[in-house]
Structure formats: structure tokens, C-alpha cells
Amino acid sequence: MKYLLAFLMITLLALSCSDDNGIKNTTWQLVWEDNFDGEQGQLPNPENWTYDVGTDWGNAQLEYDTDRADNVQLDGQGNLAIIARRENFAGSSFTSGRIKTQGLFDQAYGRFEARILMPYGPGIWPAFWLLGSDIDEVNWPQCGEIDIMEYRGQEPNIIHGSVHGPGYSGGNAITKSYGLQKARFDTDFYIYAIEWGGDYIDFFVNDDLYQRITPEDVTGEWVYDHPFFIILNVAVGGNYVGFPTDQTVFPQTMLVDYVRVYSAVE
Amino acid sequence: MKNIYYLVGFIIALSSCSRDFDQLELATYPDIPEVYIDGFSPGLNYAAFGGSKVTAFDVDTETKYRGTSSMKFAVPDAGDPGGAYAGGGFYTDIGRDLTDYDALTFWAKASKSATIDIIGFGNDLGESRYVSSISNLRVNTNWTKYYIPIADASKLTQESGMLFYSEGPENGMGYTFWLDEVQFEKLGTIAHPKASILDGQDQVISAETGDERQIGGTTVSFNLPTGVDQVVNVAPAYFDFNSSEPTIASVNELGVVKVLDQGNAVITATLQEIDADGSLTITSSGQAVRPQIPAPMPTVSADSVISMFSNVYNNVTVDTWNPFWEFSTTAVEDIQVDGNDIKRYSNLNFVGILTESDKIDASNMTHFHIDIWTPNSTAPPASFKVLIVDFGADGNFGGGDDSSHELSFNSPLLRTEEWVSIDVPLSNFTGLINRNNIAQLVLSGDLSTVFVDNVYYYNSGTESSTGPASSSPNPNRNESSVISIFSDTYTNVNGTDFNPDWGQSTSVSQISLMGNNTLLYSGLNYQGTQFAAPVDASEMTHIHLDFWSQNSFELNFYLISPGPTETGFSLNVPTSGWTSIDIPLSTFSPVDLAEIIQLKFDGNGDIYLDNIYFFKEGENENVPSSAAPEPFRDESAVRSLFSDAYANVDGTNLNPDWGQATQVSELIIDDNNTLLYSGLNYQGMELGSSQNVTEFTHIHIDYWSNNSTALSIFLISPGPAETPFALSVPTSGWSSVDIPLSEFSAVDLSEVFQLKFEGNGDIYIDNLYFYKE
User: Fold this and answer.
1) Distance between CA atoms of B291 and B289, rounded to whole angstroms?
2) Which one of A212, B153, B407, B676 is most buried, counting C-beta atoms within 10 A?
3) A–B CB contacts, 8 A cutoff, strictly below
4) In a domain? residue B626
């Protein structure tokens, strides 16, 4: 209860000090959404989502991502749950889930948002992010990557927004962090969003714009003028977050209330 | 707390009586968050804990995290004459309002990597109602920020315990740690509270009305701003406790459970509306069953005893009779029976009795003794276990030099609702290699309620000091119908070897008891007897043994014929006095009775034996040929003093020393315990407790004698008031008599405490009981 109050206060403060931040005056029209309604234990709608099954993903992640309901399921309360577990599976010590809209939905420009309750604990690395749909032709990072939200479980009050492209990928990504002073992202839902146009990407937490990236900001080619698809995942370990420890509590669940994509109305 | 508010409000109301009471605000306390930043915050005091090194705490201006100074804690080396550990509390004279904070935070570093035993807040050196602490906090040589989350800040409206700590040497070595920037904070990043009582266990206990038990293991866990969970040990007062059946068991705000009646109740708790893991399910059997008489008084001389618990001896220091080890459900309570102190263990699964501070040196002792009484069933396989642990030369748990051994005791040694003396040679604890640093005594087993008294180690000195006080009863069979192996009364078969070397560890000796030669097996494992020539007992019907043992809990007797063919017979041990038994030889089938070559005993303890002989029944007119008739009355209408058919009044002394010449023994006739008065002049019987028999109409007795010419029975009440009733003798077979209690008119039937027999001859008695017609 007390925590809730604290959150409300912070949110209000955030709103009141983000007034003249130069938010583009755009009218958005909803074009795609998944509200994750359905019975508990079901896999998410296969018309919207497919699975990356495997491990590492170039980041030395420790989990094996599966397409099992043990790791990816609807919670019956209108949320998608991606569940990271400490269990031996296919040679890995952890399992989790990594779902994507690749081949099912993609879009260039627009507003991409998701309402998410974070997991927590050292070595837990959830993300809501986009990859360029031409990845199979041009490879990464030429395809472009927009990380709408990344988070390290050992810093439960900080999230990060980034872009990766040719010449500025991995540790050299263009990135900025957003922190809560007296609250955490794993105790309530927050809305993580980007608003993306031909020459800008704006990063939001709730209604708070905390970063704008333009072609002038990137130290290489601007590769954000073609369709991107959506990925949601919870990684365990990896270069970005470090190892989980004995004190990391498992299982850890990222709850996603919805994912919505809008296009700008001219 | 409420009282203080009232008081403050009341004073103001008096001084300005026109103000509306409702408009008064509650007294408030300062909400100063700082405990120690660069010096003591307002009103802060320090007090060192008892036994700690009082100079352990100091202010350090050299080493600090920030600002001008830090708090320095110098943990002493083991053996420091100034104190064994560093420990103390920082408290304020006036409580502080901490309701706006969610954690106590501080920065800490140490001169080496170490684990601080305990650090916390809420210890006000008084009630410490809301104490919170972290156990085993790991610190190292880097300054690191630590957090002790507040379980429920709304309770801390006037907390004066700001910080406390306790830390001993690490592996005997002292070191130094520093704290800085100690303050209460509103972090907002303390999340995911979880609460537990009883360490999260769902405990199920049986209980009796009147039992009390503190709900322990009260912890909360919070996820820190670092993403890791931190468990905080908190006082029960942070929790709201609930009983599913408050009339069966109540629970107060401090987590003290009281059992009020028979039935079931479940105790649960919440912390700030979070359901705590763990519960206590109580199955109450109602009114307690307790011993009515004290345990038998120890008789070992005080200078041969190291006593842990007894009213008879000076007791050594015992650290605790219940260390509340993890997963132990055991509770202990001090009770008295007739002014005698007794420990009552309930819900005993296992319990440690610790002498770790002052270890017991029992190297000069020979025996361990404990008296127990249980209301629980002791039918096999129920066991009671005693584990003795010696910490070895290093005096510490572990270290590779510990030794221990556990013995398990069963029926028939264990008995229900009777005092049982467990008296065991320490040599039976074979795994207990050393016994000069005994640090733990651990009781466990299947008996959930156990009353304990007279726990001591002793040196038995000479064997006779624990041996029988008298010699065995004299045999009264005609020599012509006897083949004797070992007896002063008869001519024994020639050339018997009473100690053939069969590899046994038993030590065999023959001792004289009141001039009577007696065979003694000390430290029995097994022991043979080799006849010079085979004994032909085919004409005989029984073998007779007299045996005595205070410390044996297993004893078997075997006949052996060539083959070898051997068959055992289990003897009831320990004995109360000499036991005489006539075992039908048919019991030993398929042993060839015409060619018995050997006898054997196995078991344990020290056994005194006498009058080992075969005999032919019917050849002796002085012994009943059958047991007394079996009683037929319903137990509910009976109060029995001596009978196998009923539960007898507890603790009756069948042979009090009133200066009589009569010899008293119990013998078994056809599996039936029978009382024998040999050479009666007079003989008393002291009941275990005074009996009100006004509800009964008669006393029943079965008796047998073919050589008595006079016999009377007396009831006695205090005064003494006694009245005899003459019994006709001799009898032809068993005589059963029902004597109206009105015959004993001078006696106060509400207070019968003794019986007496007068007369002559040898009298067999059985089934002595009061009943209602």
C-alpha cells in the first residue's frame, strides 16, 4: 500500500516536469495490439507471436529459451507472463522465453508501447525491443535495433532505452537511462514506449519523454527507415547484466498487460 | 503506548479545560533519522552488553566513509580478559517516530572479511518489543552500503532502540569493523515483502490444556534496492496473530499461544495484511496427564555424582534445556510434583540439553542416569533415545575430534504413566570415545510428552553399591525334584564352567550377598555356561532362575543341546528387586531336554543370577500349581493394588521396611505375577498414594498357603487407624475372598494409605483390589 502511494507521487512529479519537452504533436491511430486475454496457461495468440528457441543469442545469456507454456503463457488475468526458471534444460541451468512478431507483424515508424511489470534480482535482464525485418538479408547491426526498454534486475529502479546500428552497436550503442528516485519498476506496471518518425525516435516511460535520438546523435548510418518487428524476452545472465547469484529469487516473471502499435494520422 | 497518549492528552485537558478533547492531537515524538553520521545524534546513548568487552566501541576519525568520523568496533580475540565479544546497544532517552522510514541503512567495512553475528535496531535495553535484526551479515574490506528493512514502520511511533550489534571473534581471532552514515531512510525501493512465522514451517503439535508456547521464527524478507532478498529476524509483535478456534487455543499480540481446552486450533499470522508462511496446528487432548508422585529418590552418594538436574544433588550449570534447534518442535516447562522439580517436555521430537559453556568431564564416571515418565503409549516399536555428544579436546563442535553415541530404549523398560529409571553404563555408549568434554545431551524418540528428573552421571564405585540390597529368595523346593546348576541351597551338578571363552566381553564373577553365593555378569554382551557332562532334564518340567538388574534393558536366556540347537526366552529387565521365574521347559522346544550341554545369556547391563535349577512341578506342595483365578470384574468398578488384570495404583511399595522378618518376592506362575510372603510374621504395603475407597463396597483377595495357621489382613488409614480381618488358612488351592469394607469400621475409608498382613507361613497373594458391587 505504502509503495503504491510512493509510486503515485513520483508519477505525478514526473508528469508535471515533462511539460515542455518538445513532444511531437502527433495524433496516433491504433493499428495492432495484443491484450493477452485468454485462459491461464495458454500460449499467446500464434497469429501474433512466434518463438526464438535456443540459447546465448550472441550475448552469453545463460538461459535456454523455449516455446513451452512453462516459460511463456497467459496468466488468465489479461497479462502475458514470461517466466525465467532455475532448472536444467537442454544443457542450460535456466529456462525462459523470447517471443517475437517476426513474419507476422512489422511496421516502420509509429508509436510502439507496452505496459509491463518487471521481474527482479541480480542477473535478470528483461527487454521490450525491435529488430529490423531485413535482418536475414543484411545481418545485425545493419538491420537496426531499437531497445524500447532494457533493465538489470540488480538495479530495479533504472531502465534503459537504446539504439544499435552499424558503428554504434553492443557496448557503443546510443543509450540513455531513466531512474525512479524512490520507487521500483518491479512493484507496479509502467508503460514503456517509443514514438518513431523519419528523423527521430522518442523514448518514454509512462508520459515522460526522457530521450530523443535523431540522425545527428548516431555515430554511424541511420538505419531506421524500414519495418521493424517486436521482441519480448527475459534473459538470465549475459554480458549486459552479469551472472545471477545464489540470492536471485526464481522463478522470475515479466508480466505484459498489452503491446500496442500506432500509426501517425496525417 | 496508548496509555501514554492518554496521559499526555489528559494533562493538557486539565490545564485548559475549555478545549474540546477531540481537537487535541496525539503526542508526537521526534522523527530524527540520523543515528550516527559524524557523531552521536541528539539524545543517543551507548551501553555495552553484559560480558562484552566494554571498550569495543569507539569513535574513529581516521577511518571513515564520509565526513569526519565513523563508529569503530574492535572485536576482541578469544580469551581477551576484557570480554569475550563486542556487543552493545545505541538507544535514545526519548523514543523517535520512525513511521516515515522504510529501512535502517549504513555503510560498513572491516579489517578483514568477516561475518557479523547480529546487527539490528529496536533493542531498547528494555522490552525491545519491535526488535529487528540481520544475522550473519557479511562485511569485507570495502565500504559497502547495507540495509535493514523495517517490517512495519507504522508500529515504530516511539522507538528508542536505534542500533545494536553483537559479534564474537572469528575462528578465535579478533578484528575491527566500522559503521558510518547510520540512519533511517525512506528509500521507496524496498519491495516484495514476504513474512514467515515458525521459519515458514507448518508445524503440527499435540498439547494439553495449560500449555504455553511462544511463536518463534518470525521473519520478514524484503528485496533490497540491489535486487537481492534480505531476511530480517523480527519480533513477533510486528505480526497480527489469529487462532482459528480461540476457545481451544488463544494467541496474544506477542505470539504467546495458550491452550485452553480440548480440540483443534490453527494459529496463523499476517504482517501488514500479508499472510505469513508457516502455521501452528494444535491438537489439544485437554486436561494434562501428569505424574502424581515424584521420581524415585536417587541413592547414589553425592560425591560420586555429576548432576545436571536433581533436587537431591548440587547441579552443574546447564546452558539450556531447550536450544530451539531448527526443526525441533519441543517445548520445555518446569513443573513440580510434591515439591520436587521436574522438567516437562512436550511435542518432543528432539531436544538438546547443552553444557557447551561448562563442559562436563565424566571421565571418572561409570553410568548415566535419567528418570522419565510419559503418558504416551510405550508399546513397541515406540522408543526413547539418549544421545551424548563430546566436543573433544578442542572444546568446539566439529574439528574432527567430536564423538557421540545414541542409545535407544523400548518396552518393557519403557512403561506408560510410571517412572522409569534409565541407568546405563557409559561403556554402552560405545561411540562416545571421550567423555571429558561432554557438551550435549540429546533426547528424542516417539514419546511426545516426557517428564524428566534426576539427570546425572555417576560412578558406581564397587559393584555391590549398585547391586541387590539383599540376597535372592531361598528356594523352597524339595531337593529330590531338583537338578541344580547354581544354588547354595542344593547340590549343584559337578564341574560346570561358568565362564567358558566364547569370545564374549562379559566379565563374570561370583560374589557373596549376605553370605549367599551369587553369580554376577558385568557388562553383559553374551555369556555361556558349559556343563561338564550333558544334563538330562527330560524328567523335569521347569527351569528356575532368580535374577536382578538395575541397568539391563535386554536379557535373554537360552538352553542349548548338541547341534547346536538353542532356544531363547526373554526376561523382563530391569527388575525391581529380585525376580524369580519358573520357565516351562516346553518353551525351549526344539532343544533336546535329555541332552542339555550349555546355557547362554545375551543382552546388556550388569546381571545378578542365583538359584538356577531344573525342577519337576507337582513335587513340591508349598507352591501353587496354577495361577490365581483370573478376575472377572469390569475395570471401571475396580481399584486395583496388585493384579495383572487391571491397572494398579501407581508407586505402591510392596516391601516397606517396618522391621519385619518376612521375605517378599514376586514370582511368575503361569505367566501371572504373584506376590509371595515367605516366613511371614507381619508385612506392610504402602500405597503409592492415599486412596479414597468410599465408593467401593468390597476388597478382593486371592491367597494360597498350605503351611500357614494364622493370617489376617488390615486396612490402615492415618492415625494410624487399623482393623484386621481374619482369613482362613491353610487353603486347599487358591482361596478367593470378597470382604465387605464395612468390616474395617475403624478405618477412614476415604484415606486408606497402607495394608498389612499378620500371621505365619508362606503366603501367595494375587488380585488384591477394591471393587463396587
Assistant:
1) 7
2) B676
3) 56
4) no
Q: How confident is the model at residue B2 (pLDDT cuts 50, 70, 90)?
A: very low
Question: What mean pLDDT comes out for the span B160-187?
Answer: 96
Residue B258 DSSP SS3: strand
Same-domain status, B49 and B17 = no
Q: How far A2 CA sits from the closest chain B CA (Å)?
A: 9
Average pLDDT, chain A: 91
Q: Which positions in chain B touch A124 (Cβ < 8 Å)? A: 227
Residue bearing cell 500464434: A46
**Which residue in A183, A245, A249 is closest to B189 by CB distance?**
A183
From the candidates A63, A113, A150, A195, which is the catalytic residue?
A150
Q: B296 in a domain, yes or no?
A: no
Work out the pLDDT band at A17, boundaries 50, 70, 90: very low
One-letter amino acid for residue B166 of the chain: S
State the pLDDT at residue B5: 39
Asked if residues B236 and B213 have their Cβ atoms less than 8 Å apart, the reply is no
User: Is ipTM strictly over 0.95?
Assistant: no
- Decide: B598 and B502 in contact? Cβ < 8 Å: no
Instruction: Assess if residue B446 is contained within a domain.
Output: yes
Which of B187, B188, B227 is facing A122, going by the closest CB pair? B227
Annotated active-site residue A145? The verdict is yes
Peptide bond into A251 cis (omega under 30): yes
**Quick one: closest CA in B to A4, which residue?**
B188
CA distance B711 to B755: 13
Closest CA in chain B for residue A245: B228
Domain span at residue B750?
A: 635-771
Indicate the residue among B427, B461, B495 that finishes a domain.
B461
Chain A CA closest to residue B230:
A247
Same domain, B9 and B82: no
Among B69-73, B108-112, B626-630, the minimum mean pLDDT is found in: B626-630
Question: Would you call A150 a catalytic residue per the annotation?
Answer: yes
Number of domains in chain B: 6
Q: Is residue B630 part of a domain?
A: no
B454 shares its domain with B312: yes
What confidence tens digit (pLDDT) does each residue in B255-295 have?
999 999 999 999 999 999 899 999 999 999 888 888 988 88
Mean pLDDT is lowest, of A88-97, B27-36, B357-366, B457-466, for B457-466
Is B187 in Cβ contact with A182 (below 8 Å)? Answer: yes
pLDDT given for residue B10 in this prediction: 37
**pTM of the full structure:** 0.58
Q: How confident is the model at residue B27 (pLDDT cuts 50, 70, 90)?
A: low
Cross-chain Cβ contact B188/A155 below 8 Å: no
- Whether residues B473 and B448 share a domain: the answer is no
Same-domain check for residues B157 and B90: yes
Query: In chain B, what is the greatest distance between 2 CA atoms, to the nearest angstrom?
Result: 116
Write down which residue in B188, B210, B231 finishes a domain: B188
**Parallel, antiparallel, or unpaired for β B144-149 and B103-110?**
antiparallel
B642 to B176, B582, B646, B755: CA distances (angstroms): 71, 20, 8, 12
- Integer CA distances (angstroms), B221 to B149, B474, B581, in order: 8, 74, 65
Of residues A39 and B463, the one with the higher pLDDT is: A39
User: Domain of A130?
Assistant: 2-19+27-265
**pLDDT beyond 90 at B464:** no
Same domain, B490 and B607: yes
**pLDDT on residue A83:** 98
Contacts of A5 in chain B (CB under 8 A): none
* Best of B101, B189, B230, B274 to mutate (most A CBs within 10 Å, chain A): B189
The enclosing domain of B737 has a CATH number of 2.60.120.430
Interface check for B100 against chain A (CB to CB < 8 A): the answer is no
Q: At A250, which CATH number?
A: 2.60.120.200
Count: domains in chain A: 1
Q: From CA B599, how far away is CA B539, in angstroms rounded?
A: 18
pLDDT greater than 80 at residue A13: no
- The answer to whether B136 contacts chain A (CB < 8 Å) is no
Residue B89 has pLDDT above 90, yes or no: yes
The answer to whether B117 touches B166, Cβ cutoff 8 Å, is yes
